[in-house]
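Dear Dr. V.,

Thank you for agreeing to look over these. As mentioned in my earlier message, I'm a first-year student in the group and I'm still getting used to reading structure tokens, so any feedback on how I've presented them would be very welcome. I ran two proteins. I've put each sequence directly above its structure. The first is here:
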Amino acid sequence: MKRIVLCGSRKFKDTIIALGENLKTKGYEVVVPREFLVEMNKKDHARLHFSEIAKPETDAVFIVNEDKGDIKNYIGPNSFAEVAMGFWYNKKVFLKNDIYEPYSDELIGWEVIPLKGNLELMEKML
């Protein structure tokens, strides 16, 4: 069973939880940010989620980068740190949508995979 760690802005909480449920029905083991389910401070949440990315059994990091207001394909600072963790630990890193322009040099250089909404592409690559 492939293991995917979901990441994204708290603004996208409902989308992330729904995506996690969808992926579970397809047979994936899914890790959703625990702060969405249990109250915790930012420091503890970040350490816990980073540790999930670092686990050897984690196959991929999936960043839910929706539009946030007028900002296309938004990736916040914490999610960008999670991208970097995935890169560092040699995990496949997927973006739900397209490249977030302010971080395009790193995202392209680190070979992050923009799915542009096509989850089937991820399924073929895992």
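The second protein is here, in the same arrangement:
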Amino acid sequence: MKKILGIFGLLVFICVMTAILSDRFLTEFNIENLIRRSALFGIISIGAAFVIVTGGIDLSIGSVVCLVGCLFPWMLVELEWSPLAALAAISAIALGIGLSHGLLITKLRLQPFVVTLCGLLIYRGATRGIVNDQTQGFRGEFSFLRNWSQGQIPLPGTDFGIPNPLLIMLLVTVVAAVFLNLTVYGRYMLALGRNEEATRFSGINTDRMVILAYVICAALSGLGGLLFVLDVGSAQPVDFGNFYELYAIAAAVLGGCSLRGGEGTILGVVIGAAVMQVLRNSITLIDWIPTNIEYAVIGAVILGGTIVDELVRRVAAARKSGLADVEKPAESTAESAA
């Protein structure tokens, strides 16, 4: 809870400072766009959090977003598939990617970093080959899909509306939080991240939990890719989804997920995703901040989160060691008196 309050305080601070330094921040257009982008990145960040909780990492999120984002309009326009058939196909592709990652990591004992880094290269390269490096769009068709994605629920008495992607993100957040905190499988994932060997010796099928985490991550990356292309309307295979995995990982780390595994909250991840988007927005709106330092900010955020995680771990270990030292003399005194 302390971490959630801390990251929420950081979000409020950045919003207040940006509002003071730029009169464009609190405009209805900017707020609606900021909420929409935060919701889209929140979805893929939740997927990254599941992998990180188990002690893994997924560097292929952006490439999966690219793959799905390019193939969906390609299937609809070029192959003339129905929307349902295209949705079924990209869902199967995303789930298959997550399953393959999990199997390679658990059965062949390959490092998650290597597996997903190769995935990052393979999926983007495959996308560029399939669509021949051509920008994919809906060409004015299937407007009902885009209209829903770009639509919003108006708030009574105002011109402001709640973007529809936010509703999907809230649904994903609730389901993910319930799964991670209130189901036995969620507790297994947290236990796996804390101590894989002990979890395995307790009779839990750790391989199954790892595979499940990567399947969830790939599925949410696929959902994110679908919503991103519906939001933008087109996808260029060269750069669509580029570096999105960095935003997802940074949001998870900011939200309290330890890169060592075994710790994290879904609500914290969602707030972390909002912080990343507000930071991007601040860099764009505040005139004296160079727009080309965006990735430097992301790198600093990930590094800062990792440093804080390490310091907190050391303090907790030192405190635990100190309590153990205090208890030992007390026990010895009691034994001597007996």
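From my reading of the second output: The domain at 2-293 is CATH 1.10.3470 (ABC transporter involved in vitamin B12 uptake, BtuC). The first strand starts at residue 136 and ends at 137. Does that match how you would interpret it?

Kind regards,
E.
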